[in-house]
Amino acid sequence: MRRFLWLLVASFAVSLVAAQQHRSSSVSSPCFQVGKPIIHQNLAVFPVRLIGDIPEGDYLTLKEAQKEGLVVISELPEGASVPYVLVENKADKPLLLLGGEIILGGKQDRIVEHDTIIPPKTKMKVKVYCVEPGRWTPSEHGEKFFAPMLVVAP
Predict the structure, then answer these.
(1) Residue 9 pLDDT more than 80?
(2) 143 to 46, 71, 74, 98, 107: CA distances (angstroms)
(3) Considering only CA atoms, which of 125, 118, 115, 108 is closest in space to residue 151?
(4) pTM recorded for the entire structure
(5) At residue 153, does pLDDT exceed 60?
(6) Are 64 and 138 within one domain?
(7) What percentage of the chain has pLDDT greater than the value 70?
(8) CB environment 125-137: b (16+ within 10 A), e (fewer)
(9) What is the CATH number of the domain that holds 64?
(10) φ and ψ at residue 9, rounded to 5 degrees
(11) How far, in Å, CA of 32 to CA of 22, rounded?
(12) Hey, CA dihedral for 73, 71, 62, 30, is it positive or negative?
């Protein structure tokens, strides 16, 4: 098992180095450095460090998009499903949904499962968690969803 783990880590490190060597000079991408392993019994953790600047993005948050009326969250058109909602980004910028953001309404209140980027002018099925077991009827807000500006750990 230990040999397999070392082979797995070594192949990951080789992949990182190869990616750095083959990147185009006209494209700025981050470089990674694999550190020395931290070992405890059967576990080895290899720190991976980002070298250089982190590329910045021009994203809309859910709060900003809702304030401007640039996002629509709804149940799926083919029929509501507990683990999914449909998110439409009407903006000219990507929409960043953070894992743990709460969305209220629809047939059930939900939490966004993981960080998700929705491209501009796109509808996307987004994975969510149920946070309100037992209710499967529209809330007092009807089928419309809204975000109360709360985030929890997903």
Answers:
(1) no
(2) 47, 15, 7, 22, 7
(3) 115
(4) 0.59
(5) no
(6) yes
(7) 64
(8) ebebbeeeeeeee
(9) 2.60.40
(10) -65, -40
(11) 13
(12) positive
Q: What is the 3-state secondary structure (H, E, C) of 14-47?
A: HHHHHHHHCCCCCCCCCEEEECCCEEECCEEECC
| Same-domain status, 98 and 141 | yes
- Evaluate whether residue 27 is within a structural domain: yes
Total residue count of the chain as it appears in this document: 154
**Is 50 exceeded by the pLDDT of residue 37?**
yes
The domain tally of the chain equals 2
Structural tokens at position 137:
């009827």
Is residue 24 pLDDT above 50, yes or no? no
Cα–Cα distance between 15 and 33 in angstroms, integer? 11
Distance between alpha carbon 96 and the CA centroid of its chain, in Å?
A: 8
> How many degrees, rounded to 5, is the angle at CA 75 between CA 70 and CA 81?
145
SS3 91: coil
Rounded Cα distance between 16 and 18, Å, is: 5
- Could you tell me if 52 and 23 are in contact, meaning their C-beta atoms sit under 8 angstroms apart? no
The range of the structural domain enclosing residue 34 comes to: 2-51
How many other CB atoms sit within 10 Å of the CB of residue 13? 15
